Amino acid sequence: MTGLQPIPTASLLDGQVALIVGATSGIGRAVALGFVRAGASVVAFGRDPDKLAALQNEATTDAPLLTVCGSATEVTDVQRAVECARDSFGKLDTLVCTVGVFDYYRTILDLDERLLPEAFSEIFTTNVLSYLLAVRCAIPLLLRQPSAIVLTLSTAAFYPEGGGILYGAAKFATRGLVTHLAYQLAPRVRVNGVAPGGTVGTSLRGLQTFGEGQTQVDERPERAERIRRSVPLLVTPETSDHVWAYVYLASHMCSRVVTGTVIHTDGGRGVAGTVKIAHLAEEEMR
Questions:
Q1: Residue 125, C-beta contacts closer than 8 angstroms, at least 6 positions apart
Q2: What is the DSSP string of 66-109?
């Protein structure tokens, strides 16, 4: 009997060099560790030097992981991360973006018009511009060989829940980046997205504009149960639950014919119905 042989986990990303933008916590951190365990050489980029050091220590027994500290919205910092990949590993063929801030479910009725311009600028700069900046800085290296870009979306990029109007609008914009970049960068670069649902174990923070820059969504004690009850699979996703979607989309071996698509790692949120979700979101805001 003939057929495909199982692919060892450690070989899925063999020979690939990945830059993970937003690797210090949450999904980005889990993806960085998952990539090195799948055989990739990784440059982990983030703002917190202590968290980067802890990440590097945890990854020492696997493939190489280097760290670069900086802001994802500063072109010189992002360029340093790209140059680290080039100088250390000779190439860059995988880019993953996971940076984001949150608006805590604010509707248009909750927004003070005097703060709206500043809040809009903050969330779009972090959640959209940082992705464009990373792609633009990485393009010269990505175009040298077949490569992959994976952008982090959200259920809020598809449904009127999962965040407020600013977060949802920013994630819809990031969804548009997947489509446009996949078209513009083909055939050399594959561009895809992962749309996680609500997840525990993240460090997703609020907006500085609203005085919530140090507040994290996981600080709400009822959040895990709310997430579990809102999806058909009745699961509460953890950061590690999303990793294999990123590995699959990054792997030239597994997904060389896949571009312009989004994998939903949301427990079936899309078939749950928006009425139920809206009700649960309303409960959380009380």
A1: 73
A2: EEEE--TT-HHHHHHHHHHHHHHHS---EEEE------TT--GG
The CATH code of domain 10-285 reads: 3.40.50.720
Tell me if residue 167 is catalytic. yes
Q: Tell me the pTM.
A: 0.88
Question: Per-residue pLDDT tens for 100-130?
Answer: 998 888 999 999 999 999 999 999 999 999 9
What gap in Å lies between CA 72 and CA 33, rounded to an integer? Answer: 19
Q: Give me the pLDDT at residue 1, please.
A: 39
What is the residue extent of each domain of the chain? 10-285
Angstrom distance (rounded) from CA 217 to CA 238: 13
Strand partners, 148: 94, 190
Compute the mean pLDDT over every residue in the chain, rounded to the nearest whole number.
87
- Selecting among 104, 159, 167, 246, the annotated active-site residue is 167
